[in-house]
Amino acid sequence: MSRRRRQHARRPAGSIVNRPLVAIVGRPNVGKSTLFNRLVGQHVAIVEDIPGVTRDRHYADAFALGREFVLIDTGGFDPDSDDPMKAGITSQVRLALEECDVVVCVVGAMVDPMPADREAVALLRDAGKPVIFVANKADSKPKDHYAVSYYELGISAIMPISALHGRGIGDLEEEIANHLPEAVELMEPELDVPRVAIIGRPNAGKSSLVNQLCGEERQLVDDRPGTTVDSVDTLVERDGTRLILIDTAGIRRKRSVKKQGVEGLSVLQAIRSIERSHVVVLMIDAEAGVGEQDAKIAGLAHDRGRALIIALNKTDLLNREAQKKMMDRTREILAFVPWAPLVTVSALKGRGITALVGRVQDAVTEHRKRIGTGELNRFFEEVLEKHPPPTMHHRPIRLYYITQATIGPPTFVVMANEPNGVHFSYQRYVVNQIRKRFGFRGTPIRVRYRGKKKREKK
């Protein structure tokens, strides 16, 4: 895969809606996520030798012989499990089958067909879609013959592969390309579609919020903390506005996260999701209350220059007095981001969702707002006249002019004679005055102080 194609593959899946969809299905722990990562060409899905680790559909862009498609990594399929999480995985497979154009069914080459394999084949026969059967973990040619036992299920052909070592992947890509529908002329994606990272501790209601916005059970929803393991990108359109939602795993307190475990990997993906986003929606469980970890998430969003919305979820479970106390407590703990709007919602019942989307749209606008240099300097003259900067060691601090350098977040540069001598309290005063005049609600702003370059003597 060329470097250019790899760069295209990093775009959130769904930014071009007309591409074919290919779903990877199969029972737990047969190597679907490893195959997903191999076909995509980067480490996206969480891979661990524990059945049921991949529990949500995971979308990513992929290429096969020059053909572009969207690859879907489904959770493991186990119809005999009484575990409600496994039942949720079954419904996820059915949803993926309804959406896809081609199905890649993965079985284990080194084991005989299991009841879940038989059920999967029966389900795929009813799907009416092209199906490619692959026997994974055939690490060498002598192991290929172990896969012949699957022919008893009525499979006409099966491809032995090793997703871990890349064996047989070229043949599989060729087979996928042969089954893809005819190419359709695609429009260029809107590169400025806002990306919204939905972040919070486990069981804060992140998946319920995505379900409300998408209109279907796009995420597994379970009362147990940590039921969203992989971060999943979803393109949605609401009231004429397109958003890419990133539902991430709940970030636990560091002491409860195993460094090499599933939760540890999920935390890393959640942090990466903040990096890939324009706006962060911090989901807080109103019943559990705001905690130190919520403050750390808000601090991370602020440090990374992301717009921030605080969503206080499950407020329908509290009376009016308790709601007010919780809102006051949240503002107290998150006092370092007073510019972040606070919205009360009930993601499960759909209350406050419209207001939340409105705040997100406003935050995107503010995050990308640019102020003209002339207007800025007229304002800056008023600020300096009202409150000049304090001296440093009896030396006057002169601030010459201000300009906005960038957006996302809005960043301003002030030229000064002693940039290191501007006291932090005065720097805070300048930021507050900028907000008072120009708004910027919902986004952090940066103000940098630089010295004038001295002209070299001839």
Summarize the structure.
The chain is an alpha/beta fold. It has helices at 3-9, 32-40, 84-99, 115-125, 169-179, 206-214, 262-276, 292-303, 320-333, 353-367, 373-386, 424-438, and strands at 21-25, 58-64, 67-73, 102-108, 131-136, 159-160, 195-200, 232-238, 241-247, 279-285, 307-313, 342-344, 399-406, 411-416, 446-451.
Integer count of domains: 3
Tell me the Rg in angstroms: 26 Å
State the separation between the terminal residues, measured CA to CA: 54 Å
From N to C, what is the helix and strand string?
HEHEEHEHEEHEHEEHEHEHEHHEEHE
Shape: elongated
* CATH superfamily placement of the largest domain: P-loop containing nucleotide triphosphate hydrolases
Low-confidence stretches: 1-17, 185-191, 248-255, 257-268
Which features does this protein show?
single chain; about 450 residues; Rossmann fold; GMP Synthetase, Chain A, domain 3; 12 helices; 15 strands; about 30% helix; disordered N terminus
What does this 3D model show about the protein?
This protein is an alpha/beta fold. The chain folds into three domains: 3-179, P-loop containing nucleotide triphosphate hydrolases (Rossmann fold, 3-Layer(aba) Sandwich), CATH 3.40.50.300; 195-363, Rossmann fold (3-Layer(aba) Sandwich); 373-451, K homology (KH) domain (GMP Synthetase, Chain A, domain 3, 2-Layer Sandwich), CATH 3.30.300. The protein is 32% helix and 20% strand. It contains twelve helices and 15 strands. It has helices at 3-9, 32-40, 84-99, 115-125, 169-179, 206-214, 262-276, 292-303, 320-333, 353-367, 373-386, 424-438; strands at 21-25, 58-64, 67-73, 102-108, 131-136, 159-160, 195-200, 232-238, 241-247, 279-285, 307-313, 342-344, 399-406, 411-416, 446-451. It has a six-stranded mixed β-sheet with strand order 2-3-1-4-5-6, sandwiched between helices. The protein is elongated and about 90 Å long. The termini are far apart. The model is unreliable at 1-17, 185-191, 248-255 and 257-268 (pLDDT under 50).
